[in-house]
Every structure is written in structure tokens, then in C-alpha cells.
Design goal:
- The complex is a heterodimer of chains A (111) and B (115).
- Chain A has strands at 4-5, 11-14, 19-25, 33-38, 45-50, 54-58, 61-66, 71-76, 85-92, 99-101, 105-110.
- Chain A is an all-beta fold.
- The relative contact order of chain A is 0.35.
- In chain B, strands 2, 4, 5, 6, 9, 10 and 11 form a seven-stranded mixed beta sheet that branches.
- The chains are: A mainly beta (111), B mainly beta (115).
- At the A-B interface, strand 5, strand 9 and strand 10 of A face strand 5 and strand 10 of B.
Chain lengths: 111, 115
């Protein structure tokens, strides 16, 4: 059974701080990893993709991947109240276009 | 990314009835997916819809309950049949970019309440 694990939170951080969201996955063969943001009542929105070990930066977002440890993380710098949402980690099932989603981490950024 | 239009956006249905959800994409895509998101839960894949072939269902989901059509490369429907309150959920259509990146994009979702 392929699994993706996330802490459900909520993770509360003050405005301007760095929010760190973590995800582990069970399938060692996975090669493609994604972070989605989902606002309450809305559908998931892709914010980061990462395929290689190391860091990938896009604006205030940095995704980190460590395949040896089967670990993916998302850092949000200078967190804003508008970043308050549920962040879903997703992992591609090798050989398919299917994604397995974690349960999501709810992030709350307070002023 | 593709623009995905899903309708209806929400509906309240009587138990025992069926609802068909439509998903329209503004470009041709090979793979379309249907997900369910139950209240407070993450996304669970129901099935993969390929044009010109039967949908492939995930464990726990069957064609009689969730029949899917995929008549062309831009459109798909999901029917939730013989509904019960346990079917109350958000249903999401998703497409994968045909670029090998495995990135997936979602429609707006259909919030279904069965009473």
C-alpha cells in the first residue's frame, strides 16, 4: 500500500515567519513530487513540483526533496495571512500519471 | 495549464437518485481523473478515464456506482448512482499535462450533498 504521510496540523505561524511543512512517502521508486495549496471550499492548486534531490525555489516557496530519506518539505518564507490554507503533498505512482495525496497540513498565519 | 470547467458546482440530491457531473477541458488531454474528497479528508482517486476505452477504477470503487464516460479528448462525465448520504462529498475532475511532468490540475469541484 503506497502511502503519503503529513501532519494534519494546524501549524500556526506569525506573519513574516517561515512555515515548514513536511511529508514522507512509502514508495522508494517515486520520482515526482508535488505541493498543492487548497483554500477552504476551493479545489487544489499546484504550487510546486520537484523531481531531483535538493532544493527548488520559486518566489517565497522552496521545495526540498531527499529521496534517500523519502522526505519532501515545503518552506514558505515571509508567511502572509493569505497563505493560510491546507497544503497537500502528492507523489506520482511510478509508471502512471496517478497521484497519491497526503491528508494535508492546515497552515494558519496570524497577523 | 489547461482550463478545466466542471459543473454543477454544487447540488443537493435525494437519496436513491443519480447525479452526473461534467468536466470540460479547453485542450485535448489523454488522461482525465476523477477524485473524491470527503469532508475533512484528502483526495481519493476514483478512476482514470481514457478516451476510447473503459475507465480504470481504483480499489473500492465500481463502475455500477460510478459510471464514467469519456467520449472525446476534452470531455468526461462521472455519474454518482443510487446515492446515499455517505456519497456526500466533493467530486473533482483532474487532468494530467501531456508533458511527462505528471503535474495535475483540477476543476473547481462539485460539492454534493445527499439528503
Amino acid at each position: 500500500q503506497k502511502e503519503v504521510e503529513q501532519n494534519s496540523g494546524p501549524l500556526s505561524v506569525p506573519e513574516g515567519a517561515i512555515a515548514s511543512l513536511n511529508c514522507t512517502y512509502s514508495d522508494r521508486g517515486s520520482q515526482s513530487f508535488f505541493w498543492y495549496r487548497q483554500y477552504s471550499g476551493k479545489s487544489p492548486e499546484l504550487i510546486m513540483s520537484i523531481y531531483s534531490n535538493g532544493d527548488k525555489e520559486d518566489g517565497r516557496f522552496t521545495a526540498q526533496l531527499n529521496k534517500a530519506s523519502q522526505y519532501v518539505s515545503l518552506l514558505i518564507r515571509d508567511s502572509q495571512p493569505s497563505d493560510s490554507a491546507t497544503y497537500l503533498c502528492a507523489v506520482n505512482i511510478l509508471g502512471t500519471d496517478k497521484l497519491i495525496f497526503g491528508t494535508g497540513t492546515r497552515l494558519q498565519v496570524f497577523p | 495549464s489547461a482550463v478545466i470547467s466542471q459543473k454543477p458546482s454544487r447540488d443537493i440530491c435525494q437519496r436513491g437518485t443519480s447525479l452526473t457531473i461534467q468536466c470540460q477541458v479547453d485542450s485535448q488531454v489523454t488522461m482525465m481523473f476523477w477524485y473524491r474528497q470527503q469532508p475533512g479528508q484528502s483526495l481519493t482517486l476514483i478512476a482514470t478515464a481514457n478516451q476510447g476505452s473503459e475507465a480504470t477504477y481504483e480499489s473500492g470503487f465500481v463502475i455500477d456506482k460510478f459510471p464514467i464516460s469519456r467520449p472525446n479528448l476534452t470531455f468526461s462525465t462521472l455519474t454518482v448512482s443510487n446515492m446515499s448520504p455517505e456519497d456526500s462529498s466533493i467530486y473533482l475532475c483532474s487532468v494530467a499535462q501531456s508533458t511527462g511532468t505528471h503535474e495535475a490540475f483540477f476543476g473547481q469541484g462539485t460539492r454534493l450533498t445527499v439528503v
